[in-house]
# Entry
Amino acid sequence: MSDFDLKIVNGTVASASETYTADIGIKDGLIAAIGRRLGSADDVIDAAGQYVLPGGIEAHCHIEQESSSGLMTADDYYSGSVSAAFGGNTCIVPFAAQHRGQSLAKVLETYHGRAGPKSVIDYSFHLIISDPTDDVLHNELPQAIEDGITSFKIYMTYDRLIVDDGQMLDIFTVAKKHGALTMIHAENNAMIKWMSDKLVTSGHGEPKYHALSHPRAAESEAINRAIALAGFIDTPILIVHVSSAAGARIIAEARYEGRKVFGETCPQYMFLNMEQMDLPGMQGAQLCCSPPLRDRASQEEIWRCLQNGTFQVYSSDHAPYRFDSSGKLSAGPTPEFPKIANGLPGIEMRLPLLFSEGFMKGRISLNHFVSLAATNVSRIYGMDHCKGSITEGKDADIAIWDPEVTRVVKATDLHDNMEYTPYEGMEIIGWPITVLQRGKAIVANNELQVERGVGQFVPRRKIDCTGMPGRLAPELDPAVNFGVDLGL
Ligand code: URP
Ligand code: ZN
Ligand code: ZN
# Structure
């Protein structure tokens, strides 16, 4: 009998801090040994000249999810997970969305039913909380956290999803008590409505005006408010899909002060800009997302904030709506921008874009690429015990990247259920050519190697904020508030 089921030899292995040449021995789906001259194996992959990196973890994507207006995303858990795998990912964390009146237990049951039989890679869920009733806050949410769903998203905008400041405080209190992380879509609802109204009534309803209707100030106001409210309760938050320099700066400042704040940005804010929405007819609808694309100067600032660590998380925010009546044009062939479904596809391109434009072009190190691809997310979202790095004892989730492969992006080559990609025509240097999950090839030789449903649910641990001191607001601290104990 061989020592290992599989060995990957001669590759350049990288973690979030180190790069070295080593062989990796895999046994029973786990990384069993890292070193040289390791012993025998049933199978061997020669990775000479290639990078052997942790499989990516895509922690912000919308898959087989109904929007608040009832529109279903174009990808289900099969096409979404296949597309993720071809883009070098071995784990996804999409959203399980609670719409008003729904019970969280039922929502999670629905999403387990969607993902379990179809996903080809491992998965977890973040909840979306839109209806924080007493039962949700005191029974359902604590139970979901206990069951390994240790993060959830709330919205400060969208009429059918928005939670007000008081509801945010209630949600933060539960998150703090039970060790969960709250993700925040931070945009000021009134500013967006006011601008949208003004634009549409003055005859500016074409898709490109969507970019003006969500001002940068709407984002920075809401980020500021979210940080103030969460800081008051002293609970960790993650501001998702940050698009503006002003928003990033508020996050950087809060982190400087030791607050429990994380930041995320997405490829669309680094590789695309609003000028690209100025297209004939409805074409610009393909680039309507929220927060919207900004200008070229913002693009540079977002890159800088990724480089300097203001953003610890880099996610696709894959929200695929086809350019037809099933998606972008569900309100008719020529809807005004407020009626265009928000979101861009990008789950397969997230990592190739960053590898090519970030690492290969010298903007970030290989180790920083690994942090953003997998390691940071595994730590922040409580998956560090099994995923996120090539470490003995962890799952053998590995992507082997060939820096010699160059490709011109074409929607028809991607594996999602979309007919367009915002990155059409870009030249990409380097590609994940072999992707292993728990030691088994899921992608090799440009082919999917597994059946639907091989992905497994990953229960996540409570959120670890070691090193982020925060502080309880004096008004809540019995030591200085005349002894009032609100149980926080
Ligand atoms: O436009 C976007 N980003 N749609 C997806 C939903 C969300 O808010 O992340
Ligand atoms: Zn959002
Ligand atoms: Zn999203």
